[in-house]
Structures are given as C-alpha cells and as structure tokens.
Amino acid sequence: MELKRVVVTGIGALTPLGNNKNDYWDALAKGVSGAAPITRFDAEKFRTKFACEVKNFDPLQFLDRKEARKMDPNAQYGMVAGDEAIVDSGMDLEKINKDRVGVIWGSGIGGFTTFQDEVMNFANGDGSPRFNPFFVPKMILDITPGLLSIKYGFRGPNFATVSACASSNNALTDALNYIRLGKANVILTGGSEAAVNESGIGGFNAMKALSERNDSPETASRPYDKDRDGFVLGEGAGALVLEELEHAKARGAKIYAEVLGAGMSADAHHITAPHPEGDGIVLVMNEALSDANIDPTAVDYVNTHGTSTPLGDSGEVKAIQKVFGDHAYNINISSTKSMTGHLLGAAGAVESIASLMALERGIIPPTINHFTDDPDIDPKLNLTFNEAQKREVNVVMSNTFGFGGHNTSIVFGKYNG
C-alpha cells in the first residue's frame, strides 16, 4: 500500500526555558540556561543541588482546581502543552471526526512525585494503609493520553510509550506510522516528565549520572566539553499535532514541516552505558534516513541526544561521522540539553520542537557552555558552540537514546507541496 504523508500542524511546549513554544524558542536562540538551585525540596544534603525546573508554573491558570488535584505534575505538564498544540493547530473540534483523532504520549517514569509522596506518607505514618484514592491513576504514565482524550473527546488510538529517555520520540514514531497506515487522520503526540524530586535527584546521584557543579549550575550542562561531568535533570512537556497531509490541506492548516521518516534500534549492550562503537546509534540514524528515503547529504542539522556525559557525547559524535562521512563537516550539530537540561522521557518531544523551529526560522540553537575542547571529539565538526548560527535549513534529524539501549531518530523536512 502507498503510505500517506504526515505533517506537523501544531506545537506546544512547557519547559525550563519558557512555558509556551515562543518563549521556549526565544530562550533557545539566545543561549539561555534553565539551570538553577532546586526549589521543589531542600536539596542541601544531596550531591547535586540544582536542576532545570519549570518556572512560574501555576496549574490553576490552566486547569480546574478539582481536576488538578487528581493529576501528578507529569500529567499537568502534558495537559498544558497538549492544549497549546491543539489551539496552535487551529482544528475546529466541532467539525473533525474525533473517531479518527488519537493521542500517543511518552514518559519515562510517569507519576514519580505521586509515587514517592504516597509511599513516604505510608512509611512515616502509623502503618495504617491510608492512600489517596487517586494514587494509582495519578501514578500511571498512560493517564496523560487518557486525560487528553477525555478533554477533547478523541476516540482514536490512545496509549503511552515507555523507552526511558527515548519515550517521546517513540511516541512520535508510532504516531507517524499510525497515520501513514491510515489508522488515524490526526494524532496528538509528545511527552512529559516531572522527576525533579528527592527520589529523582537521589537516584541519579547514586548512579553518578548527574553533574555536581553546584558552584555554577548555569554552566553545568556542557555537552562535548572536555570537563563535562554528567547531565542536569530537567522537567516539562512537549506536544505536537501530527496530521495526514490531505486532511491538513483540506482544512487549510498551517504546516510547520513534513515528518519524513523515523528509525528505531537497540544497542543490545548494557543497561545504562552506550555501545562503545556506537553501533546502535549508527543503525538508528541509517534506519531513519532510509525510512525518509533521503540521502545523508540532504541533512542540514542534527539535534543530538548530547546529555553532557563522558561516554555518551563522544560516542554519538563518532556515530554521526560514520553515518554522514565527509558531509558531517557540512552539518550543524548541537545539543539543546545544554540549555534545557535532560527532560528524560519528554526530551524527544521538546527537542523535536527545537528542530522544527530551527527548520522554520533558519536558526540553529547553540550548544552553550563550551569552554575546553575534548581531544576525543573532532574539532573540525560544527558543534554550534555558544552562539546560535543562521543558515538555510531544509532537513533536520533529532536523536534520543534511553537506558536499556533504546535508540530513536526522527527526520523532519520543509513542506514543499
């Protein structure tokens, strides 16, 4: 069968850099860091005392008080970003066939704060099993697509994807394929994460995964820098409306870009460490290019996973060189995690939005906090250090990788009719 073409017609973002897509993009383009001392709890006894938190967020500005109380912050973030994307898409919810509209959402952990708080309350109590009646629905990560479908009446495919930090890219990939195969006309997709709490910071500290640069949080996330010492935990949500091309054209929708293709692979190597030769990363980027039916030389920008970890950054860059060959020197490469921190399961969605905005605006967001070259990384590559760069952008690739060896790549291109 002939696959249907899929385009992006709506975007929503709630991030450590801004609580909507425009503020998020403006901060990205200016090279602003979202890292600061933690305000969610007293982090004085933790090895890492900072994170990239969502700022000035009041759920009651967006949600009914009674409903907000039934949601973990993870779901609250998803509802806000999802609503912005729906409004941005310009869909007339009274006219579309809601049987053909789905929600596919990604999260690596889900209702982490709810789970932590309920267990701590039980442990600190008298042993009586007093739990919030909404404990389970607040905790499960598939509640966000459920809540979004209930709000808008969308009765199409509805589920959550879980692949650690690749979760929302997997959601986007599934949404792409469901529409391609004619299973839906429109899918609201993306991801959310809210892991800035005692368990999140403590757990990642125990793994020695987080930066401990407490004296300078704003410079702690430094992908590709010789002195990088781990990632900075972030939180938030990103949402995209994916739509079958003819359906979008028929209603006169604004089209941000076409989703050209996607790839998925596994390292099959280690629970947390990347493959030393980058085999899974090479495979996933080649799969994405093949699925998009484009030559590697068509790619102008790669938004990398780039977490600011010693092994991950250099391995991904070497994989890019294997896939793109000499063309790697013509590509802009950057890690927006240098500004947002690592949003875990929401990373793919917010970074896809950064990629789409780069495509639309002709501006490559920078990799900030570069101070010292890493001798293990080719200095001739354009890693877009410290300042945004203007260039014509026609095709972008966005990579995300997750614990367990999950790899995803998505390719977006300018829509040319």
Q: Oligomeric state of the chains? A: single chain
Q: pLDDT below 50 for ≥5 consecutive residues: which ranges? A: none
Number of domains: 2
CATH superfamily heading of the largest domain: Thiolase/Chalcone synthase
What is the general shape?
A: globular
The H-and-E topology, N to C, reads as: EHEEHHEHHHEHEHEHEHEHEHHEEEE
Distance linking N and C termini: 21 Å
Query: From the helix content, strand content and strand pairing, which structural class follows?
Result: alpha/beta
CATH architecture of the largest domain: 3-Layer(aba) Sandwich
Number of helices: 13
Query: Which CATH C-level class of the largest domain is it?
Result: Alpha Beta
- Assign the CATH topology of the largest domain: Peroxisomal Thiolase, Chain A, domain 1
Number of DSSP E strands: 14
Largest sheet, strands/sense/barrel:
10 strands, mixed
Overall average pLDDT: 97
**Share of residues in strands:** 15-25%
Rg value: 20 Å
Active site: 165 (for beta-ketoacyl synthase activity)
GO molecular function: 3-oxoacyl-[acyl-carrier-protein] synthase activity
Protein name: 3-oxoacyl-[acyl-carrier-protein] synthase 2
Keywords: Acyltransferase, Fatty acid biosynthesis, Fatty acid metabolism, Lipid biosynthesis, Lipid metabolism, Transferase
